[in-house]
Each structure stands twice: as structure tokens, then as C-alpha cells.
Amino acid sequence: MQYGYFDDDHREYVITQPDTPLPWMNYLGTDDYFGMISNTAGGCSFYRDARLRRLTRYRHNGAPLDLGGRYLYLRDELDGDYWSPSWQPTRSPLDAYECRHGLSYTCIVSERAGIRAEILYFVPPGETLEVWRLRVRNDRGTRADLSVFSLVEFCLWDALDDATNFQRNFSVGEVEVVDGVIYHKSEYRERRNHFAYFACSEPIAGFDTQRDVFLGPNRGWDSPLAVERGRCSDSIAHGWAPIGSHHIRLSLAPSEGRDVVFILGYSENPAEAKFDPPGTQTINKARVRPVIDRWLATDEVEGALRSLRDSWDELLSVLEVDTPDPDTNRMVNIWNPYQCMATFNLSRSISFYESGIGRGMGFRDSSQDILGFVGMVPARARQRLLDLAATELPSGGAYHQYQPLTKRGNDAIGSGFNDDPLWLVLAVSAYIKESGDAGVLDELVPYDNAPGSETPLSEHLHRCIRYTLDRLGPHGLPLIGRADWNDCLNLNCFSESSGESFQTTENREGGVAESLFIAGQFVLASKELAGVVRLRGDDEQAASLEAAAQRMIATVEDHGWDGEWFLRAYDSLGGVVGSHTNEEGQIFAEPQGMCVMAGIGLSDGTAAAALASVRDRLASEHGIMLVHPPFTRYHLELGEITSYPPGYKENGGVFCHANPWIMIAETILGDGEAAFDYYKRTNPSARAPISEVHRCEPYVYAQMIAGRDAASFGEAKNSWLTGSASWHFTAISQWILGVRPELDGLRIDPALPSAWPGFTASRRWRGATYEITVHQEPGVKGRVRRLLVDGESIEGNLVRPALVGSTVKVEASVESDLPLR
Ligand code: GLC
Ligand code: GLC
Questions:
Q1: Cα pseudo-dihedral 706, 711, 715, 721, rounded to 10
Q2: Cβ(173)–Cβ(192) under 8 Å?
Q3: Angle, CA of 307, 312 and 314, to the nearest 5°
Q4: Atom 6 (ligand 1): residue with closest C-alpha?
Q5: How far apart are CA 189 and CA 210, in angstroms?
Q6: What's the CA-to-centroid distance between 486 and ligand 1, angstroms?
Q7: How many whole angstroms separate alpha carbon 430 and alpha carbon 131?
Q8: Phi first, then psi: what are they for 121, rounded to 5°?
Q9: Is the beta carbon of 641 within 6 A of some atom in ligand 2?
Q10: For 717-732, how does the pLDDT look when each residue is reduced to its tens digit (9 = 90+)?
Q11: Which pLDDT does position 820 carry in this prediction?
Q12: Are 629 and 586 in contact, with CB atoms under 8 Å apart?
């Protein structure tokens, strides 16, 4: 069953009923001010950091599920009937409802009793505020006298403190209301120089800022007393819970419409100019008032919306494809890159599933996210790389997380996830392939942000590689440390106390447990760095990196092969993990993907055998499970993975992030059919017809889909902020469609399903545009055999970088099964 449909022309997903299986979310904001918004207007906003500068409250995991939001109430003055045009929070029946989630905006339209309301929400580019434009129309044959009530609940800035420190917070809330503008200024009297404001373009009939007064005793958001009786009390919040609510009255003739603009924003004052007049406690509004005036003028809205659309046009025009498959087209052209930008902006901070107070920017997460957005915003990717590298430690290890506001490593989590540094190497190489900017390697970057410790970025990368080589275990394989990419395989943890963190508890010495995943990742990263180093003329370094990779490959061959697939690890007791000799957890997906991507086993058949085992044992109709059979009980020596019931999360869920590795591996072996088959299984758009099973949004990837052994096989969780976004984008665009930036050219190397007659793509790369047509003889399984560049036939399938500003016509023919090179 579907709850809506894709409107590809407008690049929107249109939700046609409010009671979706779960709240279906979107994000607002592209620069510094962000918000998330559900299809019933739930969500919250923040400035830069979802934890430290939260503007409004959202009740994660409440009941009903999605409360706290950007709410309006409409009230008919004739009979006192009131409702929410976004359905929540009153959940009154609506005669019509539609929510359009677009690129950084959401528009909710509804009708009740002849009153049509359309609310458009977005953040104007470059501003630290959000606009809500309410468009009401009277479709009755008679005059309508209406009241509109707005509502936000303010968060007292630090979202963790806000949710926990009630003995203080019930006493610190402060507001000002001046000229109809509600200012939230809790803690402004002391060390905060920032405040929030909530304004409205109509003259107001009243306002409330004290939650209890607006709601009335013992009431919830669904039946506020102020709305029920049709007037606010002009309450001024003192402590407790400050809110913002405007009351406005509209009298509309038949067919008359009206636009009302609300703005919610964030503003800062210089410390020495906080108050006006000086010496008082009144906010100095000299800077903010012109901003408010500008955005309350309804004609600013259209222009800002246009520039928001233009900025997305620009970003999405980097790659545009036309394939025979509509699900592929809309994910590649619209939603997948859009989701990649969300992970760029928000990492894993805040979503319906992430509270915004748990995690900062993850080192490995953010490094991998770069793969997805580097094509769209190379300059910002460059800065991100330098920020990440500055949290590297002198040892080559890395802080596992850093805080976006301070950009400093998070001491509470520390370091010791031994895969982390290698992701930086892969991210830098992806950046250079995209931009051609090898000069980034010369940037001076400190370690642990310590002034004076700077070395060129290239040295940081060499230390990342050495970090692995300095930490080899008994078999010569990389030591796993706290965990590798699979956060839940905690081989040095041995936790017997409930409540202990699997992520940070390390009870074993750590000198024994080894990871096959890191082994594969090391080979891949060493080869990538060798390529980069060779580009700069250092053949000796390159050769030594390649030799290190070869030695690791030999070690994997000797100690990492289980007979039909790659092992996962050796545990702290010397036992094997991910072997047919284990009772549970016999095969893991991630080492199969990573080792084949690194080129291990391509010539001796082990790669093909590993992928066949994945197909036999891990592939399900809902995607590739991470491990099988899942663990049915807690294994002290394996850690968190065995804490999940079978089929969920890392314990045998379809962990979407790892699926593209298998897709890429299949293309490397030349099986486009298999790669695309997997691609379709997790493609959210292709899963839209089974939304009652999938339950998450059909336009973005989720971290996990419950695996075969779960009670809810096929049910997705943790949508939006996941590495699944960047890896799926990489798999489909660079490997299946095969338009792949390399250091010295654009590789055209598709591995397609055999029924396709081909596809076309337009790719902007290093300032030139490549108009690519791929023809495939139907029924043929093969690779590109002939390539015409501007009509000239060339050797191989690598198109050299063209002049900036030029357009290059590329025609490729996929012809037969013979290997190309
Ligand atoms: C989560 C984490 C990511 C980790 C993955 C697998 O998605 O954000 O860092 O690699 O889980 O455990
Ligand atoms: C848990 C999750 C994992 C995530 C980690 C982040 O271990 O299962 O997916 O990466 O928490 O802290």
C-alpha cells in the first residue's frame, strides 16, 4: 500500500494521508539554521548544533509519536470549531490533506469546512530563520470569521540540559513581547548573547508565552484552552515552559484568500551591545528588527523560494541520468543526492531516530559521507576533510567524534576504533579524484587541534596507514581496537555490567583480536594512497604502499579465508568469527564486500566464491543481511552485536550501508545483473508499494531493514542520517552506471542489467560537462568495448579531463563478455 506518490517534475514526494506508518520527515535549511519537519508539521529547529543551540522542543519517542512542531490552529468564530491544518496536534478529520516534501521545503495543504489552508515552510538561503507562509482561502459561499493561533515551544538552548535539568530549567525561562514579536531570551541575562524570535505579519489580537496558560490545566496540545475559547491571555513566561503563540483574526469574504507570514529565527548580539538601553535587561533589537521587517513582507518569500530552488538545480545538475528504470532515475537525480547533502549538514545528529544530543560528527561517518556529496560541494568537502584531519592524533589514530560547534575531538568517546583513520585516506582520494586538487595534500593541518603540531595533510594520510601497520595481531592482520566499521563487534569489551557502554568499555588488553574488514580496507586505502602519491611523482612511496598492500593480501589469503567466504575476525581468545565452524554468525557481509572492493581474490576465484556465498546465505528479498545466522544469545566475547534480538540492527538486520559494497563487488566481477538486482531491493522508491511493510519514508534510505529472523522482516528503521546514502549513490552512479571520476580521467565503465538498451547521463566534472550515451546490445553481458569522445574513437574507457567550460560528447558501447583490460 502507498501513502503518497512521487512528483518527479517538482522533485517532491506527495503524501496523501496524514497517518503514515511513521512520521515521514524532511529537513529545512542549507547553511547554519536547520530544522526537521514531519508530514504533520512535527519537528524542531536549531542553529548549527542540534544539541547546543536548539530553538524549539521536539518530544522524541513520545505518544503519539510525533509531537512538538510548527503548529497552527484554525478556529471558526461562528461555531467554535477548531482544527490543525497540518492534522497534528488536534488530529481533527480533514476534508482534504496533502503534504509535499520538496528539496529543503515542505508544504502542507488541507481543507476543512470550506476553509483551505496551505502552509509552506522553508529557510531562506543564507538566513538564520525559517518562514512559515500560511495561505488561507474561504471556499464557502459565505463570509468566514476565523482565528489563527500559532505555536512553538521553546527549548532552553542546550537540548540535553533542557530534557534533564528541571530543577533549574523550571525557573530560568524568560521572554519579551514587543510590537507583536515574541522574543525567547532564557539565559540571555548571563552568558548567552543569542536569542530566538517569533513574529507574524498580521496585527495580533493577543499572544501567550506561558505554556500552562495557553493550554489550560490538564490539557495537551490537541485541545488548548486559548484556542477552545478563542482568545489568548497575553501571558508572559516566568520560568516553567516558555512558548510562542500569536492570535490573529481574519475575516474573509467568499473566495477571499490571505497570506500570513510567520518567522521563527535566531539572532546574536555582540557581548558589549546586548542590552538597549545599556544597563537594562532588554534585548537590543537594532540588528534583528530590520531582518524581521524584511521577512514579514510577504513578497520576499517568493524570491527566497526561487533562490532555494536555483541552488538545488545547481547541485543536482552535477549528475543527471536517464535510464530505463524510474526508481533509479528519481533516486539518482533527486532523492539520493538530497539525502547525501542532509548527511553532510547533519551527520548523525538529529532525526526522528537521533535525539540530536547523542553524537557529534563521527570521524568514519563523516569521512564516508564525503563520497556522496563531494561532487556537489567540493569546496565544502575540502574544508570538512581538513576539519576531520585536525582531529587525527599524532599516532595516526583519530578521535571517533568531534563537536561541530567547536570542531574539537570528543574526549568522552576518545579514540581506538581502528578503522577510523583509513576512511580519511579514502575520502581524500575521492576528493582529489573529483576535483583534481592534489594541492590539498600540502595543506598544513594540526594533530588533535594542537597549535604547532601542523604537518602537510599528506603526512596525516601516511600516519593513517602506519597506524594499521603499527597494530598488527598474531596472524599479521590488523588489530580491531574498540571496533571497526561494525560498531557492535566489540571484541575487547567483555562487558558483564548492564549499562556499560559497548563503545567505550575496553576490558581486554587489545593485542589479539583482529579484523578482516580492516585488512580489506587497508589494502584499498593503501592502493588509493599509492595512486595519489604516484600522481605527485613519488614512485618510491607508491611502491612501498603497494608492497604493504600485497603483504596484507597474502596475509588475508593465508589467514582470512574460511573456504567459501572471508572470515570476519579473530576474537580476543583466538577464536574465529564469521566461519562455518561457528554455530551462529557464520558469515558476515562486510568483509566480503570490502575485500573484493580491495581487489582481493579476483584472480583465484575466492572473490567470486565469497559473493556466491553472500547470495546463498545473506541475500533476502529485502536486501542483504549483515550476518547469518544471527546470534540468539549474548556472547561476552563478541559484545553489542549479540545484544540485539536476531534480525535487528547489526545482528542480522539488512544493514543498508553495507549493501552497496556487495553491489560494487559484483560490478568489479562484471555482474551488473546481480549488482542491479541488489540495488533494487533496497531502493526506497522501489519499496514504496510495500510501505505498510517498509514503514519508513519511500524517498530516503534507512540505516536498517529488519532481517529475515526478525518478527517484522522488511521493516525499516533509522531513516535519513545514514552512510547508506553516500554508498548507494557511489554504487549506482560510479559502479553500476559506471561514470567514475579517477585521478587522471573520467572512467566510463558501466555494469548494467542485460535487458537495458543503455542509458544517458550528463556529468559535470572539473568544470567541463560530459554528455554520455551508453548503448548496450540487449541480452549481452559485457563491458564498454568502444568509446567515442567527441566522435573520435579512443583506446580504453578513460576520458581525459577536458577544458574548463567545454562540453564533451561521449558515446560508449557495451558489447561483449570479454574483459576490457
Ligand atoms: C552506525 C554508525 C556507523 C557504523 C554503523 C555500523 O550507522 O553510525 O559509524 O559504522 O552503525 O555499526
Ligand atoms: C549502536 C548501534 C550502531 C551505532 C552505534 C553508535 O552500537 O547499534 O549502529 O553505530 O550505536 O554509537
A1: -50
A2: no
A3: 95
A4: 486
A5: 19
A6: 6
A7: 37
A8: -120, 130
A9: no
A10: 999 999 999 999 999 9
A11: 43
A12: yes
